[in-house]
Amino acid sequence: MTKSEFLNRISNENPNIGAYQIETEFITEASFVLGCYYDDKDRIWKIYETDERGFKSIIFKAPDENTAFDKLYKLVGIHERLNK
Question: Per-domain residue ranges for the chain?
Answer without folding.
Answer: 3-82
